[in-house]
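User: Could you check the structure of this?
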Amino acid sequence: MPAERYLADIVARALERRQRRAATDLEAHLDIMATQVVADTTAEDLDDAIDDALRHVRPLRAWQP
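Assistant: Sure, the predicted structure tokens are below.
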């Protein structure tokens, strides 16, 4: 197997694992948040909570020129 193909496979598997881990982290965070929801929670409150959950699992992005 050519070295380029071997490295591409390693990177692809690492990215797949990272994506699965992020999905699992999001699920866990949403479960925790769901236990804290009170009866008078509005749709806007839920949207804010989802945004908060996504901020916790998204990787930090550092844009460089």
